Amino acid sequence: MNAELPLSHTVGEGQGEGRHRHKPAIAHLFWWFMFAQGGVLAAILLPVHILIQGILGPLGIVPVVDRHYDTWANVLGNPLVKLYLLVLIAFPFFHFAHRLRYLLVDLGVPAARGVPAQIVFYGGAVAVTLGTIYILLTTVPISFG
Amino acid sequence: MPRGWWTRRSNYFWYIVREFTSLPLALWLLWFLLEIRRAQDGPSGYHPHSSLGFVIFSVIVLLFALYHSVTFLSLAGAILHFNVADRPIPSQLIVLSQFAAWAAASVVVGFVLIYFAR
Fold first, then answer.
1. pLDDT > 80? residue B1
2. Global confidence as pTM
3. For residue A10, what pLDDT band results from cuts at 50, 70 and 90?
4. What is the pLDDT of residue A2?
5. Rounded to a whole number, what is the distance in Å from the CA of B95 to chain A's nearest CA?
6. Does the beta-carbon distance from A140 to B55 stay under 8 Å?
7. A131 to chain B: nearest residue by CA?
């Protein structure tokens, strides 16, 4: 974790006889939480999805739920599956956004530190989250059966 | 920093690789989102990806995913600190618990993906 994201800001420095007042940096807390949880979820859940749905299923080595419309649509209608897929897809993108932005910084792209880059990368993660919600809600109707 | 600094030492190189793992993982997840969206094509129009190119892409992404998993979960020993009866839990035990959680989650997810294919 290469970026400094302090969990509190010092405000009022140099004022009021040198007193320092700290307030919680809620935004930093939120982005750090999303970064950490996204990293954990990607680490724990993604390899098995890639192995089974990206390799073993397409090669026909094991039957996989997304290889046939009936089984795939049946699973996608389950609200718990929709929630799981939202977490699986959306959270890692907040992790990816942070890492890729700092990858550019490390590779000598100073513009990646700026506010426009932050809007692009973290806004991209938000856009993927909203797109995932839209797709999950509109592709297969919610079914409790 | 001079251009290409990360190619000068192997640990710098692997640090950059660790950061780069996000890109192939993001691409694979976008494909996955597409796979979900394709379910709206209906039974006659649904054709899951089966090409050799897609399998090769997934193999490459899996290597990056495994590298992300190993490096990220190994960090837990340095980040997480717990005390039990006023004694700190060894960092190796914390890392071991992370890898155990990874193994357990993989078994459960793998079982669901295969079991509900029937």
1. no
2. 0.87
3. very low
4. 45
5. 13
6. no
7. B33
Which residue among B20, B25, B46 sits closest to A46, beta carbon to beta carbon? B25
Contacts with A98 (C-beta within 8 Å, 6 or more apart), sequence order: A3, A31, A35, A121, A122
Q: Which residue has the higher pLDDT, A12 or B48?
A: B48
The residue ranges of every structural domain in chain A are: 39-138
How many residue pairs bridge chain A and chain B with CB atoms within 8 Å of each other? Answer: 165
Residues of B in Cβ contact (< 8 Å) with A71: 116-118
Whole-complex ipTM = 0.92
**CA separation for the pair A4, A28 (Å, rounded):** 10
Going by C-alpha positions, the residue among A134, A132, A130, A128 that lies closest to residue A97 is A128
Question: Which are the contacts of A99, defined by CB distance < 8 A and separation ≥ 6?
Answer: B19, B21, B22
Distance from the B94 Cα atom to the nearest Cα atom in chain A, whole angstroms = 14
- pLDDT at residue A20, rounded to an integer: 63
CB contact under 8 A, B3 and A108: yes
Nearest CA in chain A to B76: A40
Q: Name the fold adopted by A39-138.
A: 3 helical TM bundles of succinate and fumarate reductases (1.20.1300)
